[in-house]
Amino acid sequence: MGTKLEWASAVALAASVVTAVVSTQGSGAAASDHEPVPALDQNPVVEAEDASALPSSDPSDVAFVAEPVVQALPESGDADVAGDDTAETLAQLVAMQDAPAKLSRNMRCLAGAIYFEARGESLEGQLAVGRVVINRANSDRFPDSYCSVVLQRSQFSFVRRGRLPRIPERSAAWKRAVAVARIAAADGWDNPAKGALFFHAARISPRWRHARLARVDNHIFYR
């Protein structure tokens, strides 16, 4: 009899324990009343079936995609003037210029005007002639390129049938004219006839109404 009572008591005790456990797991709201809700992981670990699907941390695996940038290259012979910050005289600056492998058509016309008009004059006189061509190309009163200015009808006496005469390109005078043309185009030296648009040989006296600026060697320059 005592054994049955002990067995019944044990069964009753087990039943009460089961009932208590079931009652504490009935709902999330009830559970949150007794236990704190664990904080969310700010950096969760992501698992993938295929490891290659995960981002790589190796910088060498990063591919950069960019659209190509296309820039126009400067015409040969139109590069910046060398030594314009260090030369003390125009002669020094001319001597510092490297002969370009190839001249653009416009630079050839500019150097041709200097060569045919002033190759026997000082470097300052050659520069002044070159700047007239450039000033005209920049003015709305004349064509807008060096060649169009130089080859314009009835403007330069050395032009023959709309073309430049043959140039001895191995001569020192031509190489000097090219160097002066580059300096003039880059505005790399002070022009003794600044702003001039016209000039004539000093031996003639045209009755121009233009404002006279200066005489440089054998030319008189006007605005």
Automatic annotation (TrEMBL):
Gene3D superfamilies the record matches: Cell wall hydrolase SleB, domain 1
Pfam families: Hydrolase_2 (PF07486)
Ranges where the Cell wall hydrolase SleB domain occurs: 120-222
Protein name: Cell wall hydrolase
InterPro entries xrefs: Cell_wall_hydrolase_SleB, SleB_dom1
Keyword Glycosyltransferase carried by entry: no
UniProt keyword Hydrolase, yes or no: yes
Organism of derivation: Novosphingobium mangrovi
Swiss-Prot/TrEMBL keywords: Hydrolase, Signal
Signal peptide as annotated in the record: 1-20
Alphabetized GO MF terms: hydrolase activity
